[in-house]
Design brief:
221 residues; mainly alpha; Rna Polymerase Sigma Factor, Chain: A; Arc Repressor Mutant, subunit A; 2 domains; 67% helix; globular; disordered N terminus
């Protein structure tokens, strides 16, 4: 049994065994456990121009169908924990959608910050800012929120790419430090230090802009 497989919980290991034996309910339970985490990733990385045409649930469903087809191959190798494998397939599904609908227009330097290497979609500064702000209810709140969101996007674009990436993984996608370290291909101690530095820099930028939302970017518990 490989090291990465041992990183999965006992419940995940048992569900994988059931799924491999043909237990459809076990497979459905595996997918259900990770749906919300994957949706956060898709919401961050779905291009603004696609949001009226593509639903995040459809992206995730396509990834789940792909995972079901490739499960036996995954279990033969298990080169990464199950959730990170699902996340990889979901990002591939999202990248294919971007290429199909947007082609070379998918990347807009005014609205997007690259948070992943290669052709996979980055998280948009618009989506990151919206996550920080939350939702306003009244018309006056909506106007103030729109103005502040533009300032937040400016702040996010002033961060280094590595800082934006670790913030997206840890705070916005809520990956654990170990999961983020694996995605970044660095050690866990280095990932933790990078996250702390990125938080400090982000909070400093927000303070300079007089945006008082510091508690929203504390490390998740």
């Amino acid at each position: 049994m490989s090291e990465s497989f041992l990183q999965d919980s006992n419940e995940t290991v048992e569900l994988l065994r059931r799924a491999r034996s043909g237990d459809r309910q076990g497979l459905d339970q595996l997918f259900s456990r990770h749906r919300e985490r994957l949706r956060r990733m898709v919401d961050l990385r779905l291009a603004r121009d696609l949001r009226d045409r593509v639903d995040a649930s459809d992206v995730i469903q396509e990834a789940f169908l792909d995972a079901a087809r490739r499960l036996d191959s995954y279990l033969e190798d298990r080169s990464m924990p199950f959730f990170l494998w699902l996340r990889f397939l979901t990002r591939q599904s999202l990248a294919a959608l971007h290429r199909h609908h947007l082609g070379t227009k998918a990347r807009d330097p005014r609205r997007e910050v690259s948070l992943c290497p290669g052709p996979l979609p980055g998280a948009t500064s618009e989506a990151l800012a919206a996550q920080l702000l939350g939702q306003g209810s009244s018309p006056s709140e909506a106007v103030a929120r729109s103005e502040m969101q533009l300032r937040l996007e400016e702040a996010l674009n002033r961060l280094d790419p590595d800082e934006r990436e670790v913030l997206a993984l840890r705070h916005f996608e809520q990956l654990s430090n170990a999961e983020a370290a694996r995605e970044l291909e660095i050690g866990e101690a280095a990932a933790s230090k990078r996250y702390i530095r990125a938080l400090a820099r982000m909070k400093g930028i927000l303070a300079g802009l007089k945006i008082g939302i510091g508690p929203r970017i504390e490390p998740p518990g």
